[in-house]
Amino acid sequence: AEEKSLNFLEEIIEHDLNAGKHVSIVTRFPPEPNGYLHLGHAASICLNFGLSKKYGGYTNLRFDDTNPTTEETEYVENIKNDVRWLGFEWKHELYASDYFEQLYLFAIKLIREGYAYVDDNNSETIAAEKGTPTTPGTNSKYRNRSVEENLQLFEEMKAGKYKDGERVLRAKIDMAHPNMLMRDPVIYRIKHAHHHRTGDNWCIYPLYDFAHGQSDSIEHVTHSICTLEFVPHRELYDWFIEKLNIYPSRQYEFARRNISYTIMSKRKLLQLVNEKYVDGWDDPRMPTVSGLRRRGYTAASIRDFCDRAGIAKRENVTELSLLEFCVREDLNKIALRRMVVFNPIKVVLTNYNEDNEFVSVEDNPEDANGGFRDVPFSKELYIERDDFMENPPKKFFRLFPGGMVRLKGAYIIKCDEVVKDDAGNIIQLNCSYIPESKSGNDTSNIKVKGTLHWVSVAHAITAEVRLYDRLFKVEDPSGEAGDFKDYINENSLEIIPAVYAEPALKNAVQDERYQFLRKGYFALDKYSTEEKLIFNRTVTLKDTWAK
Ligand code: ATP
Ligand code: MG
Ligand code: MG
């Protein structure tokens, strides 16, 4: 096999291992439990778990739950489920909120050493005093409080003496620092809010920058991988580690995964859910792991996508068609072939008088171990209306008056007569079959170019199918003028209430994948019942956008 070249993170890790800096690596996947995982998270999961697997070591699942107001336990459970479904197992399940006491002690240490102070200014004043990237900020008038006073005020903040926003704790760095994030960042704020795990134990909460790096350090994370927005935060990350003199985790950044025709922000996805543009986080059009799963994507295809898309140091957009390519590749190997007629026209075989005949059709020609199933054949069949033309153009290899086709797995038939109603609509095709032409045992010597899928009218079962298109009409909905929701594709869901399927689909199960011959790949929807089968089209058989 061809050796794949290393990505830049692999290079860094190999360098660290060769230099003896580490003997094995520790990474973490740190979701904030404020929404469901999407394909961007999947990229981060495949990267973090993939690296620790490749280089020996492990990955922690750490819920980044320091913001009490947006987080919910429901999200925690779904995130765990999605990570496992993607095929990864974490070493430790951790919560940043479990470090609240330790983080509080870190803050005390900074105060004691003169590296933090309580500021009574409100957020407007603090923002105004920050200065601009080209002009220095102004020192807060509270900046030179004594250690004793700071300790007492911080203690009072913690004890609930003050209202939200009345005071904050800030790191004391440099109000003229070229990096704005180093201009005395706020590290603790007061929030009288209930936390999903710590309840009402705390009314002060650490900000991201005071929680993330220290959490990495507590866990001895060797390589803390995040997205490019955090490049300017790295200096602060390192500053806290240095001043607290704790385990030196290191932050590395890669470009976030963006995918054309969709959005990758939990905040925006939540709007689609709350405003009912979609049927929940797992709507099959959503770029969420749960949405893709419901649509019929396999975990293997998502891992393959993450692998092929790779990681980059610069912002970029991955084509949605790559994701579809990956799922087609996988489904082609594993999907059971079934025949389903979407828009039927009846074929009557006038010379057919057998009773109770079954033809044997292979389940998957791509699978060497694939089996066969018996499909009932009979005098009255449905084929697709589209597969017949009364006045066909040249090179039309399907059915037309006087023409011949093969019915998949069965016989060659010839169209003898077109039956119309009074209004001139074609309602039936009277055909004859060639008894010697049975698939696998064909002695007819007749060569036909077209093979059609079909179902026996008497044996057909009905099902609803849901066909999906891109969720947005434009490549980059967030980059367009106005609200991203203005660019939703209103035709992204087409429901066909009743299609006619071969009876084997009666036993369809959620974990199985199906190829409806010539129609696409399908999977059972979560709302499907025995009384009403519902299938989602995962993807078409070919890339139909490139038209
Ligand atoms: P969102 O903007 O959707 O809320 P987030 O980064 O705030 O995303 P987190 O729950 O904090 O969401 O993310 C958990 C991990 O997944 C982080 O390490 C983050 O960098 C990574 N991640 C999130 N979105 C992407 C993306 N589009 N591409 C790559 N990694 C991502
Ligand atoms: Mg985040
Ligand atoms: Mg976010």
**Largest sheet: spatial strand order:** 10-23-24-25-21-22-11
Question: Poorly predicted ranges (pLDDT <50, ≥5 residues)?
Answer: none
Question: Main sheet?
Answer: 7 strands, mixed
> Average pLDDT value?
96
Q: How many domains comprise the coordinates?
A: 3
CATH architect. name of the largest domain: 3-Layer(aba) Sandwich
Shape: elongated
Cα gyration radius (Å):
31 Å
Share in helix = 25-40%
| The CATH top-level class label of the largest domain | Alpha Beta
Structure write-up:
- It is a single chain.
- The chain has 12 helices and 25 strands.
- With 547 residues, the chain is α/β, with parallel strands linked by helices.
- It folds into 3 domains: 8-254, HUPs (Rossmann fold, 3-Layer(aba) Sandwich), CATH 3.40.50; 266-336 and 463-539, Ribosomal Protein L25, Chain P (Beta Barrel); 340-453, Beta Barrel (Ribosomal Protein L25, Chain P), CATH 2.40.240.10.
- The protein has a 7-stranded mixed β-sheet with strand order 10-23-24-25-21-22-11, with helices on one face.
- Strand 17 (412-420) and strand 18 (426-433) form a beta hairpin.
- It is elongated.
- The two termini are 34 Å apart.
- The mean pLDDT is 96.
- One magnesium ion binds next to loops.
What is this structure, in a nutshell?
With 547 residues, the protein is of the alpha/beta class. It has helices at 8-18, 39-55, 73-85, 100-112, 123-128, 147-159, 208-218, 234-244, 266-274, 289-295, 299-309, 320-334, and strands at residues 25-29, 57-63, 93-95, 116-119, 168-171, 186-190, 204-206, 223-227, 250-254, 336-338, 340-341, 344-349, 357-362, 372-377, 380-384, 404-407, 412-420, 426-433, 451-452, 455-456, 461-468, 493-501, 514-516, 520-524, 534-539.
